[in-house]
Amino acid sequence: MANIESIKQKILQLDAGSFQNLCDSYLYKKGYPSIVSLGGEAGTRKTTLGTPDTYFIASNGKYVFVEYTTQRTNLFTKISDDLEKCLDTAKTGIPHDKISEIIYCHTSSNITPLQDSEVKKLCEDVGIKLVIIGIDKLAEDIYLYHHNISRDFLGISISTDQIQSYDEFIYSYNANRMAAPIDTKFLFREKEFQDIINAYLKVNVVILSGASGTGKTRLALHYVKNHADAKNEKTYCIHSNALPIYEDLKLFLDKPGDYFLFIDDANQLSGLQHIIRYVSMKPEGYNVKILITVRDYALQKVINDVRAITSYEIVNVNVFLENEIKELLETSLGILNSEYQERIIRIAEGNARIAILAGKVACSSNRLESIDDVSQLYEDYYGSNLENNQFFIDKNLCITSGIIAFLDAINLDYIDALLPILQEKGLNRDSFIENIRILHEREIVDICNDKAVRFSDQCLSNYLLKYIFFDKKILSLSKMIKACFSSYKERTISSVNTLLNIFRNKELLNFVEKEIKLLWDELSTEKSPIFFEFVKVFFRINPTETLLLLQNEIESEERVICEWSDIDTEKRKNYQHVENDIIKILGGFADMTDFPTACDLFFQYYLKRPDLFMEFYHAVNIYFGIQRASFRNNFYTQITFFEKLIEYSNDWKQEFIVIIFLQIAEDFLKLNFSPVEEGRKNAITIYQIPLIMSKDVEKYRKLIWESLTSLSKIEKYREKVREIFSSYGDIIDDISIPVLQFDLKYIELILKLNFPPDKLINCLLADKIVQVFSRINYSCESLFFEYFEGESFQLYCLLKGPDYKEIGYEEYRKRKQESINHYTLNCDLQMFKKLIDVCSSISRVDNHSSWKVGEGLGIAFDVISDKADWYVDAIKYYIKNDTPNNLQPYHLVDNLFSLLSDSEVYEIIISEEYSQKNAWTYAYYHELPPGLITEKHLQGLYDFLKDTSDRCITSSSMRDIDFLDKYNAIDELALMEGCKIILDKKEYSSFMVDIYFGLLFNYHHNTPREVIQKFNCNLELLEEIYYAMLSYDNDFDYDGQFLKEIYLVRKSILDKYIDSLLNIASFSDHQEKHCCFFDLGDFVEIYNKIFEQLIRNCRFPKIRVPYFLESFLLKNQNKPDLFEKQDEWICQCIQLFSKDETKMYCLFSVISKLEIERKKIYVLIFLENNPLFEDFERIPLIPTSWSWSGSAVPIYSAWIEFLESLLPSLVGLKWIKHKNYIETQISYLKRKIESEQIDEILRR
Fold first, then answer.
1. Is the distance from CB of 338 to CB of 326 less than 8 angstroms?
2. Distances from the Cα of 1175 to the Cαs of 511, 1104, 1180, 1217, in angstroms?
3. 322 in helix, strand or coil?
4. Per-residue pLDDT tens for 11-68?
5. Which of 216, 325, 881, 916 shows a CA-CA span of 20 to 30 A to 831?
6. Helix 489-502 × helix 506-526 angle, to 10°
7. With a threshold of 0.90, does the pTM exceed it?
């Protein structure tokens, strides 16, 4: 490597012109701009006469003169003469006050201090600064700061050029990379920029990871230039040129200080750890921060190098999201049209610059068609760079890149399917892989772990796909599809779609169709086993043959005979999926010219296979429903479908057609649709599409409404039509109002013909329609006035009350109370019964106003509660009508006791058979006044509680046992006896046990101490009740506070609790409860007992027990007091049971999920107590079960870090087996990382 002396020698060998050129470059890098070289002949190394040799114009507008000489003798005389010429205004034409500085560069070391002083005084006397730069200063600066000058002018490489200044890095990046220029406007990475700032608050090394083209380098450079300490640090940019970097580091980081190092594509750098070590050199005075970029496929390699030395943070840089590209188009180019945006997003593949280029093309032409075919756009962007790389002249590179572009990603271990293609082109496995390595070196493709290959840039992949398969036809598309269809089906489909959708030109479309038809005929002739799969994918290319093929398939299937009543129209209704291949292909004909024929086959197949009803139902919604394309295609698919449906209905005599129509009509009559469309990279987009009126919308809706008119005349279909009406008008946009107005005439016709106003439920239906229209401020109430004039509807409105959303709930309650009071106070019994009749009429209707009506009836009962003469009759009538709206009986029964004797009240309650009889009987004993209670009542209560007719109850409001206290006056153990009877119900209905005892263990009802006090005379019963509740509902005492308090007075509850754990389905939902014993002084003994009994009694302890341990050992890690107790229990557990294989397996299954330092401590405690290798290898050092999203690599890396942390503690022959075992696991995990990285590339 060069030194300062060798640089001096090379400078001395320069002729005058070369020396002047070197000095001009040197001064430019020193910060002197706008060079004008008068003393040099442009383009040569010759000098010319002139004064000064060079000049600059400084920032203050004054001149800086420069003189050069290579003369080494009589230097003082030469300098003096040259300076006098510079100061001679007659020669230069510049007055002294316009000259701020004169610089004199020379190659001699012979000027004395006295001579230096004299020449400087010559300039100072006229107010001009003189700077003399001799060979010593020049050589030292070049050596330390300006290596490019050394290389370019002297032919000396001081360094390997891997460490550069910011400006040098920008220049070399732009000059040598195939990518677009890096010094562009910084956009959309504000979050990541802030993430970097936050990361440096914690660590000194930050890694930016992401795929190629995501802007990692641009983001890093923005941070380098703009972070807070940029002006106080020496900043260097580092990139690899495959040479060692150690000597460069010693040269550039030659002394302590503040440094900021940016390392680009760090995985390619030789000696990354040499750089990272500077972070750990703070004691020596080095304060170093490092920012690294690395492509995602090589992240783990970089992490391994960094982690060995220091901690780090990762900031992920993802491709631009669709919404970011959308915002970019809006803000930069003003493109707001969604169709333009979506097309550009599809073209750009997340590349912001491609998006801008496409956007500019679209803006300049103002036509969407201008970006249908982006061939020229891609050609302009990539073509010249590929030519400069001599890519196009190497046919084998083209073949290799074409195959990779077609498959998107390749695993080099599995390329057998490609060998016939390669062999036909004169390539083999080895030459193919060698070509891939060349493409990798040119940064065209990425290689992960020497296995997985993918394109660095998806847009480049698209470009080469077209170039190789279509433009130059270097590879045969049909042969490639045939070779790859079985093994790479999804990628084959994706590549064909790319050709058709990215490059929309007719010639290419015809080419692709021709190639696919060629292969179609070939596979059909061969009777290939993949032919039908091929048809499923490419049927749109050959629709007629596809329909013939499907017709034959349908005709060959056996007809399934079933009744329409056997069809389950609700099962799997929300699981929108189609399995049947024939139905899926027919569905794919939507919007195609042959769709009417496909519809014929669709209905013929449906009538032959009505057992596949749900498949056909979902197919209609998925394929024939309202999509965005429906508007462009004038609702062709929907109109055709319903025309065909009506044709096959046979005047609605064909019941299977009726069934499917009634199921789908509701969806097609919506006014706002939410179609789901697949986007790029498996993204799903849900659109909200309001229906806009048009002749085609009128036509498809007319077909539906006229069909409903016909069906509503048929009694057995009328209720389903009612349901369709009830769901009408859910979401409405203003733009859809004309559609509602169009629908209204059909709605009015159907209602008046088939839903007359003499029934309240029909009136409510009309009211529902009116409410829909009122939401859009459109009044149609006059059209249905006869529905709202009847007494029943008026009473319904009375009970429901006004709309509280308009007036507020308090005002609503007030007005409702007043109007019901007014009616009730002025009515007789018969009028009151009509209120009950109204409730009965709507009890079977699923109406969201039912609770309001019930509330109104309750108010009415309160108003007449003092009218003894007919309140009782009203209650009897209410019970006789099966208690519509199921009002809570307590208050009603309490009122009865104020009007009648207890026996009369009882007789009213039990005299009829009705669904709520059990609840009313319970209310009788609950509300019975204490002063009336006798032994007979107590016995009646016991008999009621013993009655098992409540086994059928599956829905009920909560009950309580507190009311039993008042029966203690007759029998002091009445509460205990009643609880025993209720507890016995567990034999046939755990639900009823829960209904009675649920409030007992509710904080808002009782505290744990109050419950214990209540059962103080029979704690065994309390224990049994708690156990019964625990067995039914593990959530009821969610934090275990009742359990803990009962344990303090009844230790045997622990056995019951353990027994419940043995039968529990999942421990994850009850973590608070499992932690409750940590509050007690004997928690160690408690958890030891639980642990031992679970191990002893669980059927599969190694599977089940770790989940329980997780529930109380991994919970609340941030609570110091709990943390300490968990730690205490774990430590004593290891010491106590270290030789118990099952216990240690279960315990370490949980320990393995803790943070590294804690895990390490527990492993070392285990080894202290049990050094046997045979036992050590049985404990799980890494989790036996885990979950994650995204990449598994960070998980494997953390496990490796933990295992490596154990190795320093395993020194010596005693631990050699342990150490070997851990190293083996580390090697295994590293292989897993490599495998996962390969899979990630291939999945992506």
1. no
2. 68, 21, 11, 12
3. helix
4. 999 998 899 989 988 998 888 877 787 755 545 545 566 788 889 888 888 999 999 9
5. 916
6. 150
7. no
